[in-house]
Amino acid sequence: MDCETLVVEERDGWRRVALNRPEKLNSVNALMREELRSVLAQAWDDSAVRALLLTGEGRGFCAGQDLGERGIAPGESPPDLGASLREGYNPLVCLLAGMPKPVVCAVNGVAAGAGANLALACDFVLAARSAKFVQAFAKIGLIPDSGGTWILPRLIGPARARAAAMLGDPVDAQTAERWGMIHACVEDEDLAARSEDLATRLAKAPTAALGRIKQAMLEGETASLNDQLEREADLQRRCGKSADYREGVAAFLEKRRPKFRGE
Ligand code: LHQ
Q1: Does the CB atom of residue 24 touch ligand 1 within 6 A?
Q2: Looking at residues 188-192, what average pLDDT do you find?
Q3: 138 Cα: distance to centroid of ligand 1 (angstroms)
Q4: Is there an atom of ligand 1 within 6 Å of 134 CB?
Q5: Where are the alpha helices (DSSP H) in the chain?
Q6: Mean pLDDT confidence for 140-160
Q7: Which of 113, 123, 127, 250 is least surrounded by CB atoms within 10 angstroms?
Q8: In degrees to the nearest 10, what's the CA dihedral of 258, 244, 96, 53?
Q9: Please, which pLDDT band fits residue 72 given cuts at 50, 70 and 90?
């Protein structure tokens, strides 16, 4: 797929998507929002894509909304930021969090504003040691959006989440790992290989089961135990009918490695 603001590459059963406005630290303009939405929707539907890797070109991962698009001239009425979220960012968060296959995010540098929260909507966040996460919103009179007020307290607890959101101080990758905000902090020079190895491994996994693990955990956030047990039973019923379950059990009994097809 030809994109102006993204680099999209096919790999071994997975797809690499890199934000590509490095001179602006990959801040998100209207075109990038549109292109990212279309690339994610396409990956959702494509059964040949069994994992996704999201990263950034250059020294930053993503500096959030392109503020160059947000200046308000004197006398001009302010834009409807609610509409911008409903139409622009919220669909991206839903696509990443709901994607029925694993999404790895390689945070190669600063992740600020919506850029930080898009990263945190992914399943595995690996960050370079030099990277940092900045809930930059309050510094410009906004609240964390793109799911920030939902995901942050769940990942790091309400006390740390409030401080990160209200003060907007950077959280470095090592601290993010220690707080449980991300999967791992890795050395800068190892980030690409580590995240690509993970995507390759995930692309060989039983994709439908992984998608249902995401679904169960996401929907389980607000469920009672009884409702969640019922949800597990329903999803497990479907997994039990899959070719990958059949293959997984056969491989175990035959003492060999399973060959999952993602079905
Ligand atoms: C940028 C940006 C940027 C444009 C760096 N835009 N150019 C959703 C819906 C609706 C409305 C509003 O918002 C949202 C969600 C949001 O994301 S709101 C939050 C928006 N983001 C921010 O407030 C972060 C602004 N950026 C920063 O605070 C810093 O640039 C960080 C901490 C990310 C990085 O700092 P440095 O490493 O010191 O880099 P820098 O500041 O020198 O930036 C490098 C270049 O990138 C620079 O351009 P220049 O032409 O001067 O070299 C910046 O202007 C540009 N840039 N962020 N968001």
Answers
A1: yes
A2: 98
A3: 13
A4: yes
A5: 30-45, 81-84, 90-98, 114-120, 148-156, 158-167, 173-179, 191-203, 207-220, 225-240, 243-253
A6: 98
A7: 250
A8: 30
A9: confident
Per-residue pLDDT reduced to its tens digit, 163-189: 999 999 999 999 999 999 999 999 999
Model confidence pLDDT, tens digit, residues 109-137? 999 999 999 999 999 999 999 999 999 99
| Ligand 1 atom having least distance to the Cα of 134 | 32
Whether 138 lines ligand 1, by a CB cut-off of 6 Å, is: no
DSSP string covering 161-222: HHHHHHH---EEHHHHHHHTSSSEEE-GGGHHHHHHHHHHHHHTS-HHHHHHHHHHHHHHTT
d(CA 66, CA 183): 27
Neighbours of 114 (CB within 10 A): 27
pTM of the predicted structure, to 2 decimals: 0.97
Whether 182 and 125 have beta carbons less than 8 Å apart is answered as: yes
63 lines ligand 1 (CB under 6 A): yes
